Amino acid sequence: MIKSVAFTLAGLSLLIAQTLHAAPLRIAADPIPHAEILEYVQKIDPQLDLKIVEMSSGGINPNELLASGDVDANYFQHLPYLKDQEKALGKTFSVAAEVHIEPLGIYSHKIKSLADLPEGASIAVPNNAPNLSRSLHLLQDKGVIKLKDTGNAVTTLVTPEDIVDNPKKIKIVQIESPQIPRALDDVDAAIINGNYALEAGLVPAKDALGLESADHNPYANLLVTRPELVKDPRIIQLAKDLTSPQVAKFIQEKYNGSVIPVANSQHD
């Protein structure tokens, strides 16, 4: 009986190893920090064969690639954005892991603090609904505007029409997220997603005039796959690696507060 169990366990281990080596796991990711984190995972876990498909700014939607089967997973988005995408695409995806938080930041080439925002200042914000709402809440948190109470900030999205107090008559300029860093010279300030800020050479923890708090932050970046792959041994292993203390330490040391491991935040 003991020999039989031993043979069974040995066979199971061999099956898992064969599955991990059967085919590369194709994963779409933004270049910074997502692809960099995945490259580190590949370094510490060479048994897991990853084919990292880096997504350039704009262009192809990683969720469309995932839905069509062109990739097996993606790593670039938070849950409110994913839910919005599921509605838009008419698809259902599965979250395999919550990995890190990229605090949204307010940046400017023209002012040194938010108190210096001039009357009628223009602020560029992402034009997709979840990050637009997130940006408006950040402006409210920093005392720039006030929004009407719409309940849960994540499940109930707000728009500029929900601004009830705007003492400096701020103008909200909606731009595609990847293009916002290029617009910094054309506006008084801009709200930029962490990955695009890093790609533009900004250091969120140092350069942002206002930064989203990581405590209880609901915008963790996710490893996402299709429902039929959520129990794939390769997905399970990648999720385990991405949420490991070793990867958390790498994120901490490489990004120095600009990217924060979920395990090190007070995320619920």
TrEMBL record:
Question: Where in the cell?
Answer: Membrane
**Matching CDD domains, A to Z?**
PBP2_lipoprotein_Tp32
Q: Which GO terms describe its cellular component?
A: membrane
- Quote any Pfam family the record assigns: Lipoprotein_9
Q: Which UniProt keywords are listed?
A: Lipoprotein, Membrane, Palmitate, Signal
Membrane disposition: Lipid-anchor
The superkingdom of the source organism is Bacteria
Q: What is the residue range of the signal peptide feature? A: 1-22
UniProt-listed InterPro entries: Lipoprotein_NlpA
Which family does the similarity line name? Belongs to the nlpA lipoprotein family.
This chain belongs to the protein called: Lipoprotein
Tell me what organism the protein belongs to. Answer: Superficieibacter electus
